[in-house]
Amino acid sequence: MRHRAIRPEPLFFELNPRRVRRQGYMLPTLDVPPVEPARVLPANLVRDPDPHFPDIGEMEVVQHFHRLSQLNYAVDEGLYPLGSCTMKYNPRINEQTARLPGFASIHPLQPVAQIQGALRLIWELEEALKTITGMPGVTLQPAAGAHGELTGILMIRKALSTRGDPREVVLVPDSAHGTNPATASFAGYRAVEIASADDGTIDLGALEKMMDDTVAAIMLTVPNTLGVFEHRIVEISKIVHDRGGFIYLDGANLNAFAGRALPGLMGADAMHINLHKTFSTPHGGGGPGAGPVTVSEALLPHLPVPRVVRTGDDYELLWEDPESIGPMRGFYGNFLILVRALTYIRSLGAEGLRTMSDVAVLYANLVRHRLSGAYHLKYDAPSMHEVVFDDSRQARHEVHNTDIAKRLLDYGFHPPTMSFPLIVHGALMIEPAESVAPEEVEAFCDAMLAIAKEAEENPELVKTAPHDTPVGRVDEVRAARDLKVRWMPEDDGA
Ligand SMILES: *Cc1c(COP(=O)(O)O)cnc(C)c1O
Predict the structure, then answer these.
(1) Which of 61, 186, 356, 478 is paired with 52 by a 20 to 30 Å CA distance?
(2) With contact defined as beta carbons under 8 Å apart, do 160 and 270 qualify?
(3) Domain ranges, ordered by start, for the chain
(4) What is the fold, at CATH topology level, of the domain defined by 92-347?
(5) The domain 352-480: what is its CATH number?
(6) 83: Cβ below 6 Å to ligand 1?
(7) Which parts of the chain register pLDDT below 50?
(8) Cβ of residue 145 lying under 6 Å from some atom of ligand 1
């Protein structure tokens, strides 16, 4: 167990319960007459005279937030085995390049002549992603993976409407990430579920039946959300293309095969890549991130604007193109994230990227090998970057996946992804991610094995975990039904 003692931290408002007058600033005495707010503002905009701001000093503020930060878990602290999320270490050199003044201090409205270096960086990252995916075009604009999905599906919709063949349906496998059906609906399509075969990949028979001229596209995750490679991907692409549909690949987890396989050769028409999962940029609560989309020849004309174009050694921005789906966000995306991603790609090089994917797969298989005696594997197909167990063995002792996750906190590890994908009941989806040391992966496996043993010998211990954290088990039902996210003055001292 890797804990150090941590005190529970009171709320900001509770730090000074007697409300002794303290303040964290020193301003000179006001040398103009004070203004009554009601005289200059409409009455409904004037707040209660006492907004109940906490009275605390500067050092208390710093210590409060520092202590809160210590309650958190982070990629810089240890293994963060969230399957599908790929929580990997963000190398410090990425931060150094992103802070170079020539990148950090420029403005998107500067004349292009002054930002040639930045445009060149965008162009070079585009070239790198085209090489890594074997696809002829890319946009770096989307702010996250889900936003990339929307961008890709809108390009497909544009290609179909340009062809005079608008369609209605997008096929989404039952194992898919929830963002896939959400994207399809958001783009105006009906998301129709397609079943998985026994090995967890797409059921070709089902696809044959469903693939007709109402289907705009199929959205496939590679490797899929069970961490299994769609080994019939080329056949799937052929069936879909022959009937006029498009192949959308969810490439969020490109860290599983970058440098080893080319989505372009699999038949992809559009694929988003999460820079935060594969190329070591920070995850950011949906942003500021980047989810570039690579495209096939068929979608090239519909890429968003502005686009960076190169003429000789000069770079320009193309703002207008009638065939484009238009801008997906302001300017050219989250530029400093792009700087970090190119830094990572350049520091690893082609051989390093191959090793990255190899290690991602190796670690997932190390976990699979060590844990499959203790935890049940519903799908036995070979694992890529992640492995999905379920809690059926532990459930015999009334211990469920949530209990296992809570007990892991006592062992000092962040839990894996839980209860997802939906086709695995009681799922524990583990992705060590390639950036940690092998000893860390082994230590995580040791903890998981110890918990499996506890589940048999002392299930109560697991069911009541966590025991060693500043906050014990929370009432999840109450948290969902009676959620309080705002402190009100009435609660003061209650
Ligand atoms: C993470 C992920 C997404 C969504 O990416 P965001 O950047 O979080 O929007 C979509 N599909 C898969 C398979 C993912 O793992």
Answers:
(1) 478
(2) no
(3) 12-69, 92-347, 352-480
(4) Aspartate Aminotransferase; domain 2 (3.40.640)
(5) 3.90.1150.10
(6) no
(7) 1, 492-494
(8) yes
